[in-house]
């Protein structure tokens, strides 16, 4: 059996929830190919054109024209197929050979229209142990169009799961439907019609609900010709099918098996229910199934390929309550196939009742009661939000109250009443908090007779307080016996000031005032709670502070005393010679603290570089500081230059950059106090120059003059006495500046006893390398030497007398 969703009627109610809202059990349909040979992926939400899936095993047995199906294919183009996948985008009229499918909307679906990865414009599915749901959510049409969108759903079950009612195993559900085809077979979303139904694939067994090929909601039947059925006719429709049997009854349209139609007494509603034949050659008849409830009658019936029946529902006191109405349609097959469809008729009466009020005029602050009597319902909805049959209200101004009496889903009764509020007597006070010595006025309004607790009978009184006091006035207006008003006596603030009132010159002080809520200093400072005020007077200064507790104010005056700071000096400052010391002396105070931690008035310093010395001087608790910078004088002496001369020659010495000079030694100089004397040393001499700058700082420098003594012939002694008496102990040969030298000495037998290449290595009468003194006697020598351009080769005898 299958049925169409209900039409919208006056007061018609439906509990059907054909569309299944997605939850975490739904997933994107895993399409594997599309018309371009692409491979859709989860990354792009499986967006595709003409996509198909691999075989999907379902964990339940789906009955399709007597066969048990356990594998399905989900095809992007609006159908679920069996045995093979279908990527075909041009639908055909059922029945078809080899196409085995259920088709909620077989058309040219294209989900590539939205570039963003949104929940819409894709296909979802949910698979459980008893049913499969496939949702085409806001899908567009070929070629990537998204200006018109369709949303539809197919549910397939094991035939017993209550997700599809009344033993059916297929359900089609629709939301908004806007297109029927793609660019290949039409333009702007309309052209070749989309097919809705089920096809077994044997060219015989099928269900065709319609061919949809144009805009609008005109429905021409299951087998329409051009211009076909209007797509909007599917909006919010639902179809229930039993595809297990080869014998199917007519299709019911216009009412759903879960509809409830609510009528109130006096209401009349006409329902139009159609039964559509499965075959174009069949005719269908319909009728009401007895027992027929009171107020229900068939007022029109037109059997044919489509039988449209009009059922009239009338609400009255004779059919109050709920009733089940069953309509059936049957075809002319032998035996006939019959479809039954039931709905619920509920008839309710209208609400009645009376609103009564205890007092409809009150004073502000009073209350009154509103109550419903003689009502036939207990469902009350007051404008105050309350739901009881009576309410107590206390309005401050004139207010209109309403209540709605609800009787089921029928007409409600609205009742209103206005409560008039008159002004209540009120007591006023000009100032309810006053300072000692001040007065305030109390007055009463909206009353004609009054008596104050002070004994006064006037409408207003002036009072001065000795303490906080409650005043009472007696009146008889608006159920009030007495009114009260309290006046408070507020004491003056007690001012406290924390902080030093004696400071040194150029210092500041922070004063914190307390005792009030707000503060006003005469220097313009205002703060709340506590008041830090930074003061920096240069002479003794008087300040004024006003403190308030928000009612009373109090003034106070205070003076900041200023102590002069010491006048500090340091002598001397300037420059001293390096490695010298100087004495710094500070004046102006009683105690001293230098930057080197000295505490005397004078300090001796010997800085190694330019140094700043600070001293802090304190007198009467006030301090000041001074500084002295000692720089160092580093005299720079330029001297020139080391030189070499021959004995008898002269050389110029030079010093500069200072103011006075002294040369030492003065021997061989033409002037020992000038800066550029002429030197005539006869031997190599190191001259030291002492220079003094303009500050009297001294520095030294040196110049070395090498004196070259000319070469000459030399004499060899004939005798020497190596007896260690300090006289003639060595054979000394004086040779001036030899460039080459060699001496060899032999004994009388020709044996070598001494040899040397150093002219300053004199023979001491010992055998070479030992302490053995040679015997006295005559020894033969050879001497070869070069001095300047002269070569000398001398031979001879020397006598050794070693005995003492």
List the helices and strands and how they pair.
Elements: E1 3-6, E2 12-14, E3 27-28, E4 56-64, E5 67-75, E6 79-81, E7 101-106, E8 109-110, E9 122-127, E10 131-141, E11 145-157, E12 170-174, E13 186-187, E14 190-191, E15 194-199, E16 206-214, E17 229-230, E18 238-241, E19 251-254, E20 259-264, E21 268-276, E22 284-288, E23 296-302, E24 306-314, E25 321-331, E26 338-348, E27 354-357, E28 361-363, E29 368-373, E30 379-382, E31 390-393, E32 399-406, E33 413-422, E34 426-429, E35 433-434, E36 439-445, E37 451-452, E38 460-464, E39 469-474, E40 482-489, E41 496-498, E42 502-504, E43 509-514, E44 518-521, E45 531-535, E46 541-548, E47 553-563, E48 569-571, E49 574-577, E50 582-587, E51 591-594, E52 602-605, E53 611-619, E54 622-633, E55 638-640, E56 643-646, E57 651-652, E58 654-656, E59 660-664, E60 678-679, E61 685-692, E62 698-708, E63 719-720, E64 740-746, E65 752-756, E66 777-787, E67 790-800
Parallel strand pairs: 1-19, 16-17, 20-26, 28-33, 35-40, 42-47, 49-54, 56-62, 63-67
Antiparallel strand pairs: 2-20, 3-9, 4-5, 5-6, 6-7, 7-15, 8-10, 9-10, 10-11, 11-12, 12-18, 13-14, 15-16, 19-21, 21-24, 22-25, 23-24, 25-26, 27-29, 29-31, 30-32, 32-33, 34-36, 36-38, 37-39, 39-40, 41-43, 43-45, 44-46, 46-47, 48-50, 50-52, 51-53, 53-54, 55-58, 57-60, 59-61, 61-62, 64-65, 64-66, ...
């Amino acid at each position: 059996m299958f049925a169409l969703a209900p039409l919208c009627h006056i007061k018609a109610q439906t509990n059907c929830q054909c569309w299944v809202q997605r939850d975490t059990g739904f997933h994107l349909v895993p399409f594997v190919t599309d018309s371009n040979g692409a491979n859709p992926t989860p990354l792009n939400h499986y967006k595709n054109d003409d996509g198909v899936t691999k075989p999907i095993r379902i964990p339940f047995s789906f009955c399709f024209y007597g066969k048990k199906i356990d594998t399905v294919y989900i095809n992007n183009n609006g159908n679920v197929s069996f045995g093979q996948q279908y990527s075909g985008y041009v639908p055909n009229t059922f029945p078809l050979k080899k196409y085995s499918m259920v088709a909620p909307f077989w058309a040219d679906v294209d989900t590539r229209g939205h570039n963003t990865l949104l929940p819409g414009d894709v296909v979802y599915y949910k698979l459980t142990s008893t049913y499969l749901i496939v949702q085409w959510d806001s899908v567009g049409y070929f070629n990537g169009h998204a200006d018109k969108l369709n949303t539809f759903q197919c549910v397939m079950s094991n035939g017993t799961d209550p997700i599809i009612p009344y033993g059916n195993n297929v359900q089609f559900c629709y939301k908004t439907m806007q297109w029927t085809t793609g660019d290949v077979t039409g333009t702007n979303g309309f052209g070749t019609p989309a097919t809705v139904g089920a096809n077994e694939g044997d060219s015989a067994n099928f269900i065709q609900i319609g061919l949809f090929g144009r805009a609008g909601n005109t429905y021409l039947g299951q087998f329409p010709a051009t211009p076909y059925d209007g797509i909007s006719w599917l909006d919010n429709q639902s179809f229930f099918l039993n595809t297990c049997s080869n014998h199917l009854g007519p299709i019911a349209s216009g009412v759903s098996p879960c509809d409830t139609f609510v009528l109130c007494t006096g209401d009349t509603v006409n329902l139009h229910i159609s039964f559509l034949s499965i075959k174009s050659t069949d005719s269908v008849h319909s009728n009401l199934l007895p027992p027929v409830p009171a107020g229900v009658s068939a007022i029109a019936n037109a059997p044919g390929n489509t039988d449209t029946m009009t059922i009239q529902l009338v609400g009255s006191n004779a059919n109050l309550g709920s009733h089940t109405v069953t309509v059936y349609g049957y075809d002319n097959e032998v035996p006939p196939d019959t479809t039954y469809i039931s709905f619920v008729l509920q008839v309710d009466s209208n609400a009645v009742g009376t609103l009564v009020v205890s007092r409809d005029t009150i004073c502000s602050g009073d209350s009154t009661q509103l109550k419903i009597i003689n009502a036939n319902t207990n469902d009350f909805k007051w404008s105050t939000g309350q739901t009881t049959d009576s309410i107590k209200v206390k309005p401050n101004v004139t207010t209109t109250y309403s209540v709605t009496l609800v009787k089921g889903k029928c007409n409600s009764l609205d009742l209103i009443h206005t409560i008039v509020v008159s002004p209540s007597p009120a007591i006023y006070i000009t100032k309810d908090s006053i300072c000692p010595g001040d007065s305030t006025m109390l007055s009463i309004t909206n009353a004609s007779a009054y008596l104050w607790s002070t004994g006064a009978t006037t409408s207003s009184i002036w009072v001065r307080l000795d303490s906080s006091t409650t005043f009472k006035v007696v009146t008889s207006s608006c159920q009030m016996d007495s009114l009260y008003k309290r006046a408070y006596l507020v004491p003056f603030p007690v001012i406290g000031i924390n902080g030093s009132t004696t400071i040194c010159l150029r210092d500041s002080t922070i004063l914190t005032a307390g005792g009030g809520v707000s503060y006003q200093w005469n220097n313009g400072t205002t703060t709340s709670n506590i008041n830090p005020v930074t003061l920096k007077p240069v002479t003794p200064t008087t300040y004024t502070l006003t403190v308030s507790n928000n009612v009373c104010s109090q003034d106070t005056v205070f003076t900041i005393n200023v102590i002069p700071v010491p006048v500090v000096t340091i002598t001397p400052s300037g420059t001293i010679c390096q490695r010298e010391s100087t004495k710094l002396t500070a004046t102006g105070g009683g105690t001293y603290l230098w930057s080197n931690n000295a505490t005397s008035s004078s300090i001796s310093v010997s800085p190694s570089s330019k140094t700043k010395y600070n001293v802090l001087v304190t007198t009467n608790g006030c301090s000041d500081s001074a500084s002295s910078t000692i720089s160092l004088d580093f005299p720079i002496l330029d001297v020139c230059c080391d030189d070499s001369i021959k004995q008898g020659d002269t050389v110029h010495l030079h010093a500069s950059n200072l103011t006075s000079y002294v040369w030492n030694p003065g021997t061989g100089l033409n002037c020992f106090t000038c800066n550029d004397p002429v030197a005539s040393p006869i031997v190599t001499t190191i001259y030291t120059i002492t220079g003094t700058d303009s500050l009297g700082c001294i520095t030294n420098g040196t110049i070395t003059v090498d004196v070259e003594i000319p070469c000459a012939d030399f004499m060899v002694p004939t005798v020497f006495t190596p007896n260690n008496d300090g006289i003639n102990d060595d054979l000394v040969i004086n040779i001036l500046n030899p460039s080459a030298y060699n001496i060899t000495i032999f004994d009388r037998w020709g044996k070598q006893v001494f040899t040397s290449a150093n002219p300053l290595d004199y023979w001491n009468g010992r055998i070479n390398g030992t302490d053995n003194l040679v015997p006295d006697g005559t020894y033969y020598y050879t001497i070869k030497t070069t001095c300047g351009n002269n070569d000398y080769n001398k031979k001879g005898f020397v006598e050794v007398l070693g005995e003492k």
